[in-house]
Amino acid sequence: MKITPPFELLDAPFALTDDQIFRFREDGYIKLKDVLAPDLLAHYGPIITEKVKELNRESRSMSERDTYAKAFLQIMNLWEHSDDVKAFVLGKRLARIATELLGTRGVRLYHDQALYKEPGGGYTPWHVDQVYWPLSNNNTVTAWIPLTKITQDMGPLEFSVGSQEIKFGRDMVISDESEKAIDQHLKFSDRRVDSGPFDLGEVSFHYGYTFHRAGPNVTNRPREVMTIIYMDSEMQLIAPKSQNQHKDWDSWCPSAKIGEVIQTPKNPLIYTRK
């Protein structure tokens, strides 16, 4: 029997159904099983983990950190530091799913980030991602990619179903305050929360304005997750509305110009429809 090399699996198509696309657009997120093969994760997971260890600069104990720093080790744009990680991040399989879910012509990379919740790591407060992004439309999606099976007690990602339409809290950065205020609003709105674990190979995709959070990791194992943030291939840069958005412009698309399509060397076109 022929064994497919892991790197070839990065570009292999994944068959989305019309119902899955509909559910994503209605609910603001979707969890898809068997997106990435165990062999692929067994190959690339340790590579990503080693790069996280190499690039990590957090040395404080948990007791010395604030809520954000307790939530996870956050290492950005690993693809610029490793050819192997670059192959993973620029793979067409996930990018094609993102394109079909969004209904765009194609997608570019906004940036990647590893989110490793350490043993004993704290909760991740309710928030939306796009508060940080100086982008012209809502056609953004984050692929949340567990590199191992994520059990409930490791702090899997939780989603507020259909919350991408909520305007309240969109201007709140991730914090204890966002956790309290958004949680109260979602409970008042009687929003259902999907907080289940992730099987090996399962990947979630959520809009930039979908509210999400994660519980603490109460195990003795790290919650190893890679994320890739995709944006509409025709996305334009807008004038930053905050210091955080200005920082993102400087960090992730520094040569982009306001009012023009973001197509810098840091934002390669990953997938486009034929």
Automatic annotation (TrEMBL):
<dbReference type="GO" id="GO:0016706">
    <property type="term" value="F:2-oxoglutarate-dependent dioxygenase activity"/>
</dbReference>
<dbReference type="Pfam" id="PF05721">
    <property type="entry name" value="PhyH"/>
</dbReference>
<dbReference type="InterPro" id="IPR008775">
    <property type="entry name" value="Phytyl_CoA_dOase-like"/>
</dbReference>
<dbReference type="GO" id="GO:0005506">
    <property type="term" value="F:iron ion binding"/>
</dbReference>
<protein>
    <recommendedName>
        <fullName>Phytanoyl-CoA dioxygenase</fullName>
    </recommendedName>
</protein>
